[in-house]
Amino acid sequence: MIENKMSPLSLGIDVGSTTVKVVLLEGDKILYREYQRHMSQVRQKTLELLHQAASFIGDRPFAVALSGSAGLGLSESIHMPFVQEVFATGEVVRRLEPDTSAVIELGGEDAKIIFFDGGVDERMNGSCAGGTGAFIDQMATLLDVTVDEMDQMALRHKRLYPIASRCGVFAKTDIQPLLNQGANKEDVAASIYQAVVNQTIAGLAQGRKIAGKVLFLGGPLYYCKGLRQRFQETLKLTDEQAVFPEYGRFAVALGAAVYAARTGHTTTVKELDAAIRDSLSRRTAANRLPPLFASEEEYREFRTRHAGADVPSRDIAAYSGDAWLGIDCGSTTTKLALLSADKEILYTYYDSNRGNPVELVRDQLTRIYEKCGGRITIRGSAVTGYGEELIQNAFGVDKGVVETIAHYTAAKHFCPQVDFILDIGGQDIKCFKIKDGAIDSIMLNEACSSGCGSFIETFAKSMGYDIATFAEKGLHATAPVNLGSRCTVFMNSSVKQSQKDGATVEDISAGLSVSVVKNAIYKVIRAGSADELGEHVVVQGGTFYNDAVLRAFERELGKNVIRPAIAGLMGAYGAALYAMDLKESTIITEEGLKTFVHTAKAAVCQGCANHCRLTVNTFGDGKKFISGNQCQKGLGLKVVEELPNLYAFKRDAILALEPGDGTRGTIGLPLALGMYELLPLWHAFFKALGFKVEISGLSTRRTYEKGQFSIPSDTACYPAKIMHGHMEELLERGVDAIFYPCLTYNVDEHESDNHYNCPVVAYYSELLKGNMDDLSKTNFLYPFLNINNRSELTKELTACLSPVFPGINRREVRKAVDAGFRAYEAHMADVRREGERAVKWARDHGRRIMILAGRPYHVDPEIGHGIDKLAASLGFVVVSEDSVCHMAEPVSVHVLNQWTYHARLYRAARYACEHKDTQLVQLVSFGCGVDAITTDEVRSILERGNKLYTQIKIDEITNLGAVRIRLRSLLGALEEKEQEVRDSEETEA
Amino acid sequence: MKKQKPDYVVFTEEMKKTHTILVPNMLPMHFKIIARVLEKEGYSVELLETYGPHIAETGLKYVHNDTCYPAILVIGQFLDALQSGKYDPDKVALVLFQTGGGCRASNYIHLLRKALQKADMGHVPVISLSLTGLEHHPGFKLSVPLVKKMMYGVLYGDLLMSLVNQTKPYEEEKGAAQALADRWTIRLAEEMGQGKHNYKMVRANYQRILDDFAALPRRPRGDKVLVGVVGEIYVKYSPLGNNNLEQFLVDENAEVVIPGLLDFCLYCVYNNLLDYKLYGMQKTTKFLYKIAYNYLLDKEEDMIRIMKADGRFMPPTLFTHTIDLVQGYIGMGVKMGEGWLLTAEMLELADKGVENIVCTQPFGCLPNHICGKGMMKPIKARNPNINIVAIDYDAGATRVNQENRIKLMLANARERAQEKEEKVPVEV
Questions:
Q1: pLDDT digits over A85-124, tens only?
Q2: A836-889 pLDDT, tens digit each
Q3: Does residue B2 carry a pLDDT above 50?
Q4: Interatomic CA distance for residues A384 and A330, integer angstroms
Q5: Please, which residues 429-448 of chain A have a Cβ atom closer than 8 Å to chain B?
Q6: CB-based contact (8 Å) between A414 and chain B?
Q7: Which of A233, A568, B131, B193 has its Cα between 20 and 30 A from that of B266?
Q8: How many domains is chain A built from?
């Protein structure tokens, strides 16, 4: 005992975003350690663990240090030493495992890598990254299993689906449709882990190879065996190299304890206890909002007013006769509504679809048949939502209806004069403006604005509440926290910050509601004032059951709105209304249900080089439903007709370029970013000089994966990131030189104020040179060129090429430049001619035209995700922005029109406005800063021309489910509008 | 495209008498001097010094949320001021500095006008302040003497900023350095307002300022580490943009080193010379840029000479040396946003022994993908002792996450400092 007392005590407290870890050391010996979730009660939990440790400490003095993201604030308010967590980890590893090459540590919300070999380098994830513990928790909730169950499932997987790894929100939009389409949960679980792995590697390693002895630390890597497996396999580590130490969860706390011992500063349990208690009593009032209700009266008035918005219902047991069924199979919940002939509600259902909507709908149909008891006949049925096609195929539902139309039908029934509908569901925010009885504009949220219902719900769960209680608490918050309106990943850290400031659960709940509302108003609707929304606003969707959200919305808008009592059922209600013109239903019979079987199997389509990953659903009667396809080919359907498609035309033009048999050497051209535009020029140029020209080719997912290890900035756009893969591809082919010039200025088409390239297109070569070591093995040529002055260009190219390929002289370069421009101009003329032809063909055949407006590189099948094919399968003749912009005059815009590519967008928008049969859909790559400017401008051009604006934001992976909904919404709105016109013409006649 | 009638609200000569011009606050000291210089020219000027989360929130209401953070803040600050009721919306004008170029920052002025429209204040004139004359405002003309004075304001501002940074961590009396700088900003503006203010006077003032700062009582040096700050110009300098980074670093026991605004001015001018060199553009205007370049370079050289002779403070790095340092890292043609200068400034800092660096950028900043984050690998490879952390600033990013990452950089900085100290006796 006496000797023990000689070794000093030190306590390390690691307070992370979700857990508290404590380690008590006596010298080098661990006396006590504990790991617990703090449910956002940071200070209370720390205190609790301190008390547990106290029995080992007694009244001896000890050193203490805090660490972790939430420990930072705590250490400041209790005036105790703090050590940064990555630094603390480094300490421990150097001490315990000095032969370690790299450490990967995943925490609740942070991911870190430390490299020890060749210069210590410590890295943490940037702000746009969510693939961590909190993300795994969220995903488990989505699969409706515990984290442990998910882990078990992942170990049994058979295949992996690609899931976006940029951030949690993106991943979620990939996973949800997979589930709804019937993908195997085991495979999805493993794919989620794979996404975490990819994100860690791509986002943090940034070009440094992870090899040698790798130590895996942190809670998630301690608990999730499936995640360990994915890491080990992906990094190709042997069992000896991949080390998952027993103390993995405590590494930071251990490091903090070691650090504490060195500070020379000691405290006692009593003192520390008092300091934490004292900090508990202090609250900072910084950055708070006024309460949702100023008085109890206001609250009562609010309750009474909204109680009035009800729909008539009827006891199903007392009803006999005809009925119509509506099903809304949403992203996270499934809703059903059965209506009587008088549109009264007979039966409703609303619940989370727990990752298996088919099973759920089957149960419900069985119940409904039971309740109908032969007295009630279902005359018609309709289904809407993400799972529309699956459910329709599974149960023989009569009609599929696009969500927007279903919701509008319901809202119109409710409030015939409705001007504006806002629907906040589990995952989507949908807004429609109604003008003259038709949908005038549709706004849907994008990944970065997806702070929706499921977000609040997951948060409530993580804090240990069910959503109803959590919402109720929010209503009575005295000082809601101000959490901003960015993406959910950011909101998590904002909540973290507010907890540090001592915010209560009530304040956080109310704050989250305000955030969701602000997100909808300022990011999705982009409204400057309440007046823009019109007089009659109907709000719906499950999220509006939350009174705090409803109240926050009215507050932010400064006006009262209508929330139907069946807010969450409006899709199903609308679908049922939509089905009411049917007389006889094809829906599965009661007998059929009894023998209904459903199996889902994964497959890879061999129809083309795209190799879509399909999910094949088979139902009892041998009926099949296949999803995951980008085109109709894999479905075994015969393509009825091939519509003109400029995207396909441009791709074919690229593929038609032959390498030639030049003898001067081989030049590699990476087919990405600006090369998509200027390929004909450079191809002809180098051929004329006698080179063989290797083009890296169209991208696939594999292309991206090949290059993902050297990407230094994870927030850059996908078209840029995929460039790394193209370089690898060319390096593999062993070309003599790779050419991708730096072009500050693009081709001057004399239509805009200036003709810049965006910074990424212009200078990406500089980044490649700096981050891809292997480029030094070849001649990477990236001269700065003036492409608008041929003699200058000749001078610059000669200077660039002649040192590498001796003998090249200015005269032949000049000739080649001329040849290049001839090819480029011919190509552009071809594109324009084809555009004219496609438009004419569409008009001759009475087809709708879609200008799929993006950038030249969006024709790439991997970057554009085959959206052109999807549009074609919906019956659109697809043209590109550069194929039609010459048919409209330049537009004077309210922004600085200084980029060549973007000037085309504005003109294309004008063309759409001038032609009744033409729609414009804008493709936007995530992370494209320039498009923050163009989207608003294109939208305003279209809206001035009474056109619908549709935007599709794409990234690494975009599950086409969400895109399909957008395009179908557009189609639905167009048809509705045309119907309206026909109706009014008939009435006049 | 042909020049059309201006489609913006023009700041007329009338307005010079009736309107108050609001100036956004990017560099507190520089802009204070420049604002006062303008006042002496007969303008009514007010520098916006508002602070707080409501500014970003106002910005988010009126600007597309994916736009860069500086735009959200600058526009938010203007609209917040206009809606505060403090100013008569019919008697107020706004001013924005513009450099032009392929970065989306060139669009700030247009986004500001769009935001004004959205807020029903489309009639408020916005003056574009640029030396390349992107727009024409009869009521706001830059005469040569005025431009010169503004230039002096930049020089004075750079000197004061540098001296405050070099004194603040060691001052005996808290706030003394800033107070001294504040007194000097007022005095300098007064002097320049009194008519003739020639360059000889500027140089004399340099010495007086140096003497004043050197005379402030200082504590002994302690274990301060040097931390450089580089990045996108607004978030690098503006406390509103970077959550008061400078103060945070000082509180963390660091001495801050921030390259001055003059470097950025030189960079803008130099890029036009490069346009000629690289692309054969600017043939006719080249000589003007050459004159401007030499003029500015002379001024920088003077300041360095005086500071070196004085010997008590660390002088700035000469621009030509900065150019030399960046060779072999990034092409000089990278000229959007901060372009090659950003890479160069990291190297410039390392070159003078400031190896700990915070690289600041707005979330999703396009040029910084290339010249900030994209250059870290080669910089680290060739300068193994460098310790850089990249921090994103954004309306949604939280301070706690930013500070945690900066703390990691600081912890490493201290450890390295200690290692160095331990090594010294061995070598002796």
A1: 999 999 899 888 999 999 999 987 788 899 987 667 888 8
A2: 999 999 999 999 999 999 999 999 999 998 899 989 988 999 999 999 999 998
A3: no
A4: 8
A5: 448
A6: no
A7: B193
A8: 7
Does some domain include residue B283?
no
Residue B106 to residue A73, Cβ atoms within 8 A: no
Does the pLDDT of residue A486 top 70, yes or no? no
Choosing from B139, B169, B203, the residue where a domain stops is B139
ipTM of the complex: 0.93
Q: What is the reported pLDDT for A762?
A: 94
Size of interface A-B (CB pairs under 8 A): 225
Residue B420 falls inside a structural domain: yes
How far apart (Å, rounded) are the C-alpha atoms in residues A223 and A226?
A: 9
Where residue A112 falls (left for φ over 0; alpha for ψ -120 to 50; beta otherwise) is: beta
B79 neighbourhood in chain A, CB within 8 Å: none
Nearest 5°: CA angle at B133, between B132 and B134? 100
Residue B412 in contact with partner chain A when CB distance is under 8 A: yes
Q: B363 CA to chain A: closest CA distance, Å? A: 8
Q: A6 in the Ramachandran plot: left (φ > 0), alpha (ψ -120 to 50) or beta?
A: alpha
Q: Does B111 touch chain A (CB under 8 A)?
A: yes
Summarised one tens digit per residue, pLDDT across range A384-416 is 988 888 899 899 999 999 888 899 999 998 889
What's the confidence (pLDDT) of residue B25? 86
Nearest CA in chain A to B338: A759
Mutate to test the interface with B, among A259, A723, A896 (most CBs of B within 10 A): A896
Q: With contacts defined as CB-CB under 8 Å, which chain B residues touch A750? A: 1
What's the whole-model pTM score? 0.89
Contact criterion met (CB < 8 Å) for A770 and B377:
yes
3-class DSSP assignment, residue A821 = helix
Residue A933 touches partner B, C-beta closer than 8 Å: yes
A752 close contact with B: CB closer than 8 A? yes
- Shared domain for B254 and B398, answered yes or no, is yes
pLDDT at B428 > cutoff 60: no
- A749 touches B: beta carbon within 8 Å: no
Is B398 in Cβ contact with A792 (below 8 Å)?
Answer: no
**Which of these three, B92, B111, B139, is where a domain ends?**
B139
- Residue B42: which domain range? 13-139
Please state, for a pLDDT cut of 70, what percent of chain B lies above it: 96
Q: Residue A635: inside a domain, yes or no?
A: no
Q: What is the mean predicted confidence (pLDDT) over A51-79? A: 90
Confidence (pLDDT) at B424: 53
Task: Compute the distance between CA of residue B111 and CA of residue B133 in angstroms, rounded to an integer.
Answer: 19
Residue in B closest to A712 by C-alpha: B374
Domain around A659 = 647-829
Give the Cβ contact number of residue A280 at 10 Å: 17
Residue in B28, B47, B26, B25 with CA at minimum distance from that of residue B36:
B47
Where do runs of H (alpha helix) occur along A58-183?
Answer: 69-78, 85-96, 133-143, 147-155, 168-180
Instruction: Give the tens place of pLDDT for each residue, A735-773.
Output: 999 999 999 999 888 877 788 899 999 999 999 999 999
Residue B155 lies in a domain: no
Side-chain-facing half-sphere of A128: CA atoms under 13 Å: 24
Question: Which CATH number characterizes residue B378's domain?
Answer: 3.40.50
Task: List the single residue in A757, A898, A936 with the smallest CB-CB distance to B64.
Answer: A936
Residue after which a domain boundary falls, among A781, A797, A829: A829
**pLDDT-derived band of residue B143, with 50, 70 and 90 as boundaries?**
confident
Report the b/e string of A401-431 with b at 16+ CB within 10 A. bbbbbbbbbbbbbbeeebbbbbbbbbbbbbb
What CATH number is attached to the domain comprising A406? 3.30.420.40
What is the rounded distance in angstroms from the CA atom of residue A238 to the CA atom of residue A226?
16
| A438-479 pLDDT, tens digit each | 888 888 877 655 567 777 887 887 778 888 899 999 998 988
Flag if B7 and A892 touch (Cβ within 8 Å): yes
